[in-house]
Amino acid sequence: MAKKTSKQTHTGKAVTTHLRPNTKKEIDGLFNGMEAINEVRDGMKTILERDLWNRKDDGTTPITDRLNKIFTGKDDEKIQVAKLWVKRELQTVIKMASLQVEVLGENVDTQNVTIKKVTKPMVENVDNRFEGNFNEVEIGTFKVVIENKNKVDETLEQKLQKWMRSVQLWKKETDEYETETVRMLLDNIDKGLVK
Predict the structure, then answer these.
(1) Residue 88 DSSP SS3
(2) Is the dihedral of CA 182, 188, 191, 193 positive or negative?
(3) Half-sphere exposure in the Cβ direction for 128 (13 Å, CA)
(4) Is 7 domain-assigned?
(5) What is the dihedral of CA 45, 46, 48, 53, to 10 degrees?
(6) 10 Å Cβ neighbour count for 84?
(7) Residue 140 resides in a domain
(8) Which distant-in-sequence residues (6+ apart) come within 8 Å of 1 by Cβ?
(9) DSSP state of 114
(10) What does R_g of the chain's alpha carbons equal in angstroms?
(11) Which domain holds residue 165?
(12) pLDDT tens digits, 51-99
């Protein structure tokens, strides 16, 4: 059982300070299940490849039809299970590089394929990010979506700002970067103090 302290993190959640170690039986169970999990994922990959490959022009497939039926139903428990499955399993398998290549072929460098709910930005499609036409009636329904990868080359300044945000050298409230810290780091590199 996890023990939590009363101290809270910046997210406001209690900090876990201890978890009991796994037993040998639990570890054995994890590894004994590997083969079965891999078989299930391989089977899902094959089914998804065929489903995505044989999609209709409107982006529907037997899988999207089944998901839409579940999500418009009244069984809340089934909907929650489906949400988790879509997030943890379906999206994980769809993102596999080999599946993307199988479905998109030579377009794999410029596009991604997935199954997801239609959103308002997809309907508006201002920057031609999405292939196909989606309409307002389809918002909230699952479709096969082909998304163009908009590879924008970032400038050196944009890359530096992105890095500074990632290492907390940026104040979100004021949108200010702690450039002095970076200058000191660069000076230390020039002096040979940092390797």
Answers:
(1) helix
(2) negative
(3) 1
(4) no
(5) 130
(6) 11
(7) yes
(8) 20
(9) E
(10) 23
(11) 156-190
(12) 999 999 999 999 999 999 999 999 999 999 999 999 999 999 999 999 9
